[in-house]
Amino acid sequence: MGALLDAFPGARRALFAKYHVGGCASCGYQLGETLREVCARNPDMPVEEAVAHLEASQAHDAAMQISPADLKAALDSPEPPRLLDVRSREEYEAVRLPGADLMTQPLLQEFFHQGDKTRPVVVYCHHGQRSLDAAAYLIGHGFQDVKSLAGGIDAWSTEVDSTVPRYRLEME
């Protein structure tokens, strides 16, 4: 499952959404297991169907992403998207994209109750994994134009603006 999660970054979310697999201790899996082994323990999860679902989910995830270069162009446009940073407060305070808001619980509540659900939103994190989950969450709550920054702020630093410091978290 470890190799599968590396190849399909949204696989954890996709498997949980369709099969309720991997979200808790009772339906969890080990990174050393194979998809075939996980499917064998979950009778309503045929291997071929699970693979097809993961491939479709991967295509859906790709459509939710925006490249750093495309984000740069969007930010330079007359009506730039709203930027939401889904990293920790410490990461946000250390380095962030100009104009970005840290996604906090109060901001999220304001967003849901008073936000324009048609305004373009781009969410980002360190490497683009958490932000993909956050984009899916916002889309699931009715936001119409949400993208995740592919590769996160790290890709932004290497592809668009090298003055944005790169960093490594101790837990990585």
Write the layout of secondary structure elements.
Elements: H1 2-7, H2 11-19, H3 35-41, H4 47-63, E1 65-66, H5 68-75, E2 82-85, H6 89-94, E3 101-102, H7 105-114, E4 121-124, H8 130-140, E5 146-149, H9 152-159
Parallel strand pairs: 1-5, 2-3, 2-4, 4-5
Helix pairs in contact: 2-4
How would you characterize the overall build of this protein?
There is one protein chain. This protein is an alpha/beta fold. Helix content is 48%, strand content 9%. The protein contains nine helices and five strands, in the order H-H-H-H-E-H-E-H-E-H-E-H-E-H. It has a five-stranded parallel sheet with strand order 1-5-4-2-3. Helix 2 (11-19) crosses helix 4. The two termini are 18 Å apart.
What structural keywords apply?
2 domains, 172 residues, globular, 5-stranded parallel sheet, alpha/beta
Sequence stretches where pLDDT stays below 50 over 5 or more residues: none
Amount of helix? 40-55%
Largest sheet, in brief, is: 5 strands, parallel
Q: What CATH architecture of the largest domain would you give?
A: 3-Layer(aba) Sandwich
Structural category is: alpha/beta
The pLDDT mean sits at: 92
Give the terminus-to-terminus CA distance.
18 Å
Biggest sheet: strand arrangement: 1-5-4-2-3
Strand content: 5-15%
CATH homologous superfamily of the largest domain - what is it?
Rhodanese-like domain
Instruction: Kindly report the CATH topology of the largest domain.
Output: Oxidized Rhodanese, domain 1
